Amino acid sequence: MNRFTIALGTAALLTLSVGAGSADAISDSSKRYIGRGISLQANAWECNLWAKACDWKTSAKVYKGSKRQKMSWVKNVAQITGRGGSVSIGGSGTGVSGSGSAGTHSFEWTNKNAWMADLAGQARSGYLSLVWGIETCSHASTHHEYLGVKGTASACAG
Question: Is 123 exposed, middle or buried (0-12, 13-18, 19+ CB in 10 A)?
Answer without folding.
Answer: buried
